Each structure stands twice: as C-alpha cells, then as structure tokens.
Amino acid sequence: MKYTVITGASSGIGYEAALAFAARGKNLVLAARRTEELEALKSKIAEIDGSLDVVIRTVDLSVAERVHEFYESLQGYDVETWINNAGFGNFASVGEQHLPKIEQMLHLNIEALTILSSLYVRDYADKEGTQILNISSGGGYTIVANAVTYCATKFYVSAFTEGLAQELRSKKLPMQAKVLAPAATETEFAQHAFDLDGFEYGTSVAKFHTAAEMAGFLLDLYDSNKVVGIVDGLTYEFKLQDPIFPYADRAQTSKDEA
Description:
Elements lengths: L1 E6 L4 H12 L3 E6 L2 H14 L5 E5 L5 H9 L5 E7 L14 H26 L6 E5 L12 H23 L5 E6 L3 E2 L2 H5 L7 H4 L4 E2 H13 L4 E4 L6 E4 L8 H8 L1
Parallel strand pairs: 1-2, 1-4, 2-3, 4-5, 5-6, 6-9, 7-8
Antiparallel strand pairs: 9-10
C-alpha cells in the first residue's frame, strides 16, 4: 500500500487536498496539531471511499524534535507523495513584529519543511512515481508590504523546492519536486496572520480562491511535468511553469567548458 502524506491537514488547503487525493483513491497520512479536526476529516474521507487507509498524526511541527519523531513514525509506510502544507503567516512591519510568533513561523515554514523534505528525498529519491510538493505563496515570488518576514520564508520555500527539482533532474533521479504558490485563498491564514478571532474573505478581499479550488490546482500541478504552479496576483489565473529562479549548475558548467 502506498500513501500520500499531507501536513497541516486539519483545515484550508491541506484539508481540501486530503479530500481531493482521497477522491483519487489515495491512502493518506494526515498531520496537524488538532486531533478533533483530523478525526472529522478522516470520517469525511470514509464517506468518499471506505476502503482507504487514513492514518492520523497529531504533531506540532514547529518543534524540531517532533519533526524528526513524526518522520520516524512513518517508517513502516510506503510514501509515494509528500505534501508539505503546514505553515502560517504574519502581517506586521519588521520592527513591530512579535518575535515569539516569528520564531515559531521560521521553525515551521522553513525548518520543518527542510527537514521533512531532506529526509523524504534521502529515502525515496530513487523510487519511480514519487513526488514532493511544497506549498509556498505568491509571497514567495513577490515581497508584500508589511509581510516581509513571511514572504522571506516563502521565498525560501520556492527557491529550495525549485533548486531541489533542478538537483533531482541533474542527477537523473525519478522523484519530482514541485512548488505551489497560491494568492489569497479562503482559509484560516488571514485570521492567524493578523491575530484575529475571525476573518471574512467575501467582504475584505477583492479576489480570492477557495481552498477547494486551490486543492484542484495542486492536483493539476501533481499531474503535470512542470515544477511551479503559481496564481497570478493580478488576474488570479493559475499557471504551470518551469522553474522561475536562475539555477547555476557548476558541475555542468565545468563540463561545458571542458
């Protein structure tokens, strides 16, 4: 049996991605901090396809030790797809941002994603049909005012994943690495980023996608041979693209010069 791992699965894009992959007949490992929401999601998936195996892991991936423990707990599963979706944002000027929250964001958005990606690549890069999909943001390609630190974390995710994709290709390894870059999406993101009790997208945001729409885009990226799936911040059109950042392969350059 093969599994698709989704972090941050208790709500938003991760939740809808779980439903979308379940509809494809994929067994799932769902990770998040909130057990009750994960259990509810598992029950909903059972309504879609009761034959699927759905494994729940309650874990706070902003804590480094938990990240390693989480990965080790999956050693008995054959993971064909890994989706690093867990993350959160923050809106504040650099000089005014709340540093404990920023530290947690750095741990989750960068550290956990890097550790899990590295471990998965180490174990599965040479296996046919494997994919790693990391969730970045339009803010991973454009710096947004009053969200500089958040955007910097997502620039990291974009650059890391694009670089990984190039590295895998240069080594002729079968694993594919891909990055999804949403624009405004109706999730709990804004609520947490602004530290609000609630946030109404319909009255506060001119354009946005639903989390279900974004999960559909994720499937489009999954099915494609492209590395980047990005939402245009002006038109909100979804595009599949080759890597955007320049990539300098020194070994290849040396070969060409020789």
